[in-house]
Write a structure and sequence with these properties.
Nucleoside Triphosphate Pyrophosphohydrolase, seven-stranded mixed sheet, alpha+beta, about 150 residues, 7 strands
Length: about 150
C-alpha cells in the first residue's frame, strides 16, 4: 500500500507597477528545458510577516524598493513535481508600485521586462497568473484614479 504525501509551500508575490507598465521576470521551468514569464515571488522566512517577506524578496530578486498598495490580495495555487513528491504551492499576490525601473535581477532569473498590461497578458501563460494579472490591473487602475502615486 502506497502512502501519498503532498508537500505544501506558501509564497508571497507582487505585480509591480511603474507608471503604466508592470514588471515580468523570466523563470526556468522545474524541468529546466523551457522558460516562462511571471511575477516576483518568494518564501517568507520564519516569523517574517508577509509584507516584510515580499519587500525582502523583491529587493533580492530585482533590487527594487516597493510600496505595497493595501486592499489587494489574490491567491494562485500551482501543483508541480519535485523529485518524487507532489508539491502544492500557494502564492499570495499583492499589488505594489516602485519609483525606479532600474532592475538588477538575481541569478535565479534569466531576464526581466517592463511591459504594458496588454502585452503581459500575452506573455504570461499560467491561467492562475493571467487571472491575477487581470484583477491586479483593474485594482491598480481604480486606485490610481483615487490617489496620485
Amino acid at each position: 500500500m502506497h502512502k501519498f504525501f503532498m508537500i505544501t509551500e506558501m509564497s508571497v508575490g507582487s505585480i509591480i507597477f511603474f507608471e503604466n507598465q508592470l514588471l515580468l521576470l523570466k523563470y526556468k521551468t522545474k524541468k529546466g528545458d523551457k522558460f516562462y514569464w511571471d511575477f516576483p515571488k518568494g518564501h517568507p522566512e520564519k516569523k517574517e510577516s508577509k509584507e516584510k517577506a515580499l519587500k525582502r524578496e523583491v529587493k533580492e530578486e530585482t533590487n527594487l524598493d516597493i510600496s505595497i498598495i493595501k486592499g489587494f490580495s489574490e491567491r494562485a495555487v500551482y501543483f508541480f513535481r519535485q523529485k518524487d513528491e507532489l508539491v502544492k504551492k500557494t502564492v499570495i499576490f499583492s499589488v505594489s508600485v516602485t519609483e525606479s525601473k532600474d532592475v538588477k535581477i538575481s541569478k535565479e532569473h534569466y531576464d526581466f521586462m517592463w511591459t504594458s498590461p496588454k502585452e503581459a497578458l500575452m506573455l504570461v501563460k499560467h491561467p492562475a497568473s493571467k487571472k491575477i494579472l487581470k484583477a491586479a490591473v483593474t485594482f491598480y487602475e481604480s486606485q490610481k484614479r483615487l490617489s496620485d502615486f
